[in-house]
């Protein structure tokens, strides 16, 4: 994280969008579908598993609030895009 000139929240957002765009391009051949959220959710929870483990070793307890915040940051924009496409607000 220290090598990137971005905040931790921005990194989560970028990773979520990158995984989502890869899923759209590769998995569904360019069509945005709700199923394209699955890899984003899997990656978000996977990253948080490592963060929780690090919290346990660093602080001696789990920071659930921070983990929920990170999962929301990772998943928010892909979820917004899928929702807008689903309700035909964007194509």
Provide key terms for this protein.
single chain, 91 residues, mainly alpha, 0% strand
How would you characterize this protein structure?
With about 90 residues, the chain is mainly alpha-helical. The protein has helices spanning about 10-25, 35-60, 65-85. It is elongated and about 45 Å long.
**Relative strand content:** under 5%
Mean pLDDT: 90
Pattern of helices and strands: HHH
Q: What's the end-to-end separation, in Å?
A: 34 Å
Largest sheet: none
Low-confidence stretches: none
How large, in whole angstroms, is the Cα Rg? 15 Å
How much helicity do the residues have? over 70%
In DSSP terms (H or I, runs of 4 or more residues), the helix count works out at 3
Report the strand count: 0
Shape: elongated
Based on helices, strands and strand pairing, what is the structural class? Answer: mainly alpha
Short description:
The protein is mostly helical and 91 residues long. It contains 3 helices and no strands. The longest helix is centred in the middle third of the chain and has 23 residues, at 37-59.
């Amino acid at each position: 994280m220290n090598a990137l000139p971005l905040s931790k929240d921005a990194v989560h957002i970028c990773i979520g969008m990158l995984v989502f765009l890869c899923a759209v391009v590769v998995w569904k051949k360019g069509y945005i579908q709700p199923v394209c959220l699955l890899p984003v959710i899997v990656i978000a929870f996977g990253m948080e598993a490592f963060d929780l483990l690090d919290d346990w070793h660093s602080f001696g307890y789990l920071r659930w609030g921070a983990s929920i915040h990170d999962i929301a940051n990772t998943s928010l924009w892909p979820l917004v895009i899928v929702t807008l496409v689903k309700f035909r607000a964007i194509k």
